[in-house]
Specification:
The structure holds two protein chains of two kinds. Chain A is mainly α. Chain A is built from nine helices and no strands. Chain B is elongated and about 110 Å long. The chains are: A mainly alpha, B mainly alpha. Chains A and B meet through helix 2, helix 3, helix 4, helix 5 and helix 6 of A and helix 2, helix 3, helix 4 and helix 5 of B.
């Protein structure tokens, strides 16, 4: 009978075991190993945010890399007033907004594949159940329609609905990242959902 | 608000589909090392563009310039207004440069003064020369364009102070 391997506890002296604040301090001094750990911690969330805003894997890849590089270069100006993640998030969002402004309405979707668990998600299964008029619509088609509906929204509305309903970011954090008040976030969220509901009416359950 | 949340429950469920969109397998395995390599390459090469340097040193100015980049209409309006300001400046400068009527009168009046100055003093006396000492001494005021040796308490390096001590007993 084999003993289960003990869970490895990260050493507090290695970058993986360090707190965010310590990693930021070390990265500010030019410690690239510390910054590498910060990238590893937040790469997926930053990538996902940018990806959902651009609807394009290639652009998301470039912008995520640029956001991390810019954050490293701007680390000396990081005052520590907010968490490193919030600050990084703001850099990523601003970079993406500028990119989308330059790209204007030339949307090119390069959507990532849905993962294996999608078909087992009870909420999504319910959506394409027998009650749905388009019950023969596959998940891939639903994904395409959803993205098209999202890109009919204005950038601020799309951003709010993605950050809140997809990423699970709180109203307060969105307000901080987008430099607006919470009331604005709430009203944008309401309007964005209303618009999405109208665009996707045929996929909604009656 | 709660009723609204319930109304949008289907939309929220639909949006959960986005959470299942994932990048290609293994995408994040080497992502951080790519970024670190790019940072290293940037540090070694020092190939930061002007805009990149500006974004670090003066992010507000970089943001201001980015407005021009993203909205060509604004740069057109800015350039037009700049031209208008320059044109107005030139016009005002022209107006102020045009000679006023009183200017020649002043010039004419200054001439006799200069004449009287030059005629009042006779031809500059040559310095009295002491042939034995070889030192030239002059007590005449010299009206010249040479700057004074000491202006605003600063020593003029073109001038050298010299003292002329007369030998005792002569």
């Amino acid at each position: 009978m084999s003993m289960p391997e003990p869970a490895t506890i990260p050493d507090a002296n290695t970058p993986a075991g360090m707190l965010e604040g310590d990693l930021v301090k070390r990265a500010r001094r030019g410690d690239l190993a510390a910054y590498d750990e910060l990238v590893k911690r937040y790469q997926e969330r930053i990538y996902a945010t940018i990806y959902h805003m651009t609807g394009n894997h290639e652009d998301a890849n470039d912008l995520t890399q640029e956001a991390f590089i810019k954050a490293y270069q701007a680390l000396p100006s990081f005052k520590g007033g907010s968490s490193f993640y919030t600050w990084l998030y703001r850099i990523a969002i601003n970079k993406t907004i500028n990119f989308l402004k330059q790209r204007k309405n030339r949307h090119h979707f390069s959507l990532n594949d849905l993962d294996f668990n999608t078909e087992h998600n009870p909420d999504l299964v319910a959506l394409i159940s027998h009650k749905t008029p388009h019950r023969d619509a596959g998940l891939a088609e639903l994904q395409k329609k959803l993205n098209e509906a999202l890109f009919k929204l204005s950038e601020p509305h799309r951003m709010v609905v993605i950050l809140h309903d997809v990423q699970g970011v709180s109203h307060e954090e969105i307000a901080e990242a987008m430099k607006c008040n919470i009331g604005t976030v709430r009203s944008r969220l309401f309007y964005a959902r209303q618009q999405l509901q109208a665009h996707l009416a045929e996929y909604m359950q009656s | 608000m709660n009723a609204n949340e319930n109304n949008f429950e289907t939309v929220r469920q639909l949006l959960k589909l986005k959470q299942h969109e994932v990048p290609p397998p293994g995408y994040f395995n080497h992502f951080s090392s790519q970024i670190i390599s790019r940072i290293r390459a940037g540090e070694e090469g020092g190939t930061k563009t002007f805009m990149e340097r500006l974004q670090i040193t003066a992010p507000w100015l970089a943001g201001f310039l980015q407005i021009f980049e993203t909205r060509p209409g604004i740069i057109g309006a800015f350039a037009t207004s700049l031209c208008l300001v320059l044109g107005a400046g030139l016009f005002i400068a022209e107006q102020s440069d045009s000679a006023p009527k009183t200017a020649p009168v002043v010039a004419e009046n200054t001439q006799p003064i200069m004449d009287s100055v030059t005629s009042a003093s006779p031809a500059p006396l040559l310095a009295a020369t002491d042939p034995s000492s070889g030192i030239s001494v002059s007590t005449n005021p010299v009206l010249s364009l040479q700057p004074s040796a000491n202006m605003f308490g600063q020593q003029n390096p073109l001038f050298q102070s010299a003292s002329f001590a007369t030998p005792v007993g002569r």
